[in-house]
Amino acid sequence: MMDLLKDKSSRKQVTLDVSHIQDSKELHSLLKKELDLPDFYGMNWDAFWDAITGLVELPEILIFEGWDHIERKLPEDSQTLMNILKDFNEQYPLWKCQVIYK
To answer: What sign has the CA pseudo-torsion 101, 26, 21, 30?
Structure first.
C-alpha cells in the first residue's frame, strides 16, 4: 500500500477540466479518474473525504479549469468541494495541496 501511495504522490500537479460537467455524478467520476480514487469509491462527498484522508495522496497542486461553470451549474457541489479541500489543508498541513480555481 505504501508503495502505491509513493507512486501516486510523485505527481506534482493535476489539472481537472470541469468546464463541461453537467451533474454531480460526472464531477465525482472525473475526481475518481483523475485522482486515482479506488474502484469502490462511493461517488459522494463523505467518500471523497475518506479517500483523500486515507486512501490516496493528493498532488501538490490541484487545478480546476472551468471552475466558474461548476459554480453556476452545481453551486452546492462546488461549495462542498471547496470546503472539503480547505478542511483537508487545515487538518493535514503536512499533506497540503495547493488548489487553484480557474
So the answer is: positive
